[in-house]
Amino acid sequence: MIAIINYGIGNLASIQNMFKKAAVDATISNERNEIAVASKIILPGIGHFDHCMKEFNASGLRPLIEKRVLEDRVPVLGVCVGCQMLMQSSEEGSETGLGWIEGRVVRFRSSAMPPECKIPHMSWTDVHPRKDHLLYAGIADPRFYFVHSYHLEADPEFVTATADYGYRFVASVGSGNIQGVQFHPEKSHKFGMQLYSNFAKNF
């Protein structure tokens, strides 16, 4: 069973519905007994980085989830701000990130972008995965839906896909059982359904 963590933020029902379309059992949960036996974890997030981190910390679930991810090595997928939360810090606020992947979150550099590229980045965008990365298996010409003003900066060893909006930016990151995507698979139709199915089967 995949646990979609409910700490009061995120497109929880949309994520669950996409897993249902992929014929994968996923439950929205803030119950410790369910999270303690989950085979995989989805960490959602939407909105402001600091707000998400504060709500996640206030939920009381962080110690259990960190144990499951860091000690039990249960696969986790961060989605949108949930992906940003995996990093060490964000320019969007002052809260410390989870630090499960080394790197930070920065605002799109408008000075480095052509005038037609407005912030936030809200559009379907081609994604360029790292060759043979299991999260993108079987996805031909991947395109995903993005809504964000901030993006990841990470060492190339953690970058699993990039995309272009004014300049090339990090679209997803991964390190072992810890994976994160900046885009919204639950809003990305067949591409998102395949990605969630890949997470369920390949991690």
* Name of the CATH first level: Alpha Beta
Overall pLDDT confidence: 96
Q: What fold name goes in the CATH topology slot?
A: Rossmann fold
**Residues in helix, %:** 25-40%
Radius of gyration: 16 Å
Number of helices, where a helix is a run of at least 4 consecutive DSSP H or I residues: 6
Cross-sheet strand order for the largest sheet: 2-1-3-4-12-11-10-7-8
Q: Largest sheet at a glance? A: 9 strands, mixed
Number of E-state strands:
12
Elements, N to C (H/E): EHEHEHHEHEEEEEEEEH
Account of the protein in words:
The chain is built from six helices and twelve strands. The protein has 203 residues and is α/β, with parallel strands linked by helices. The protein has one domain: Rossmann fold, CATH 3.40.50. The strands form two sheets. Strands 2-1-3-4-12-11-10-7-8 form a nine-stranded mixed sheet. A three-stranded mixed sheet has the order 5-6-9, with no helix packed on it. A hairpin with a 1-residue loop joins strand 10 and strand 11. The radius of gyration is 16 Å and the shape is globular.
Summarize, please.
This protein has helices spanning 12-21, 32-35, 49-58, 62-71, 81-84, 189-202, and strands spanning 2-5, 26-29, 40-43, 76-79, 89-90, 103-107, 121-129, 143-148, 150-154, 159-165, 167-175, 178-181.
Give short descriptive properties of this protein.
Rossmann fold, nine-stranded mixed β-sheet, three-stranded mixed β-sheet, alpha/beta, 26% helix, 203 residues, single chain, 6 helices
Secondary-structure topology with pairs:
Elements: E1 2-5, H1 12-21, E2 26-29, H2 32-35, E3 40-43, H3 49-58, H4 62-71, E4 76-79, H5 81-84, E5 89-90, E6 103-107, E7 121-129, E8 143-148, E9 150-154, E10 159-165, E11 167-175, E12 178-181, H6 189-202
Parallel strand pairs: 1-2, 1-3, 3-4, 4-12, 5-6
Antiparallel strand pairs: 6-9, 7-8, 7-10, 10-11, 11-12
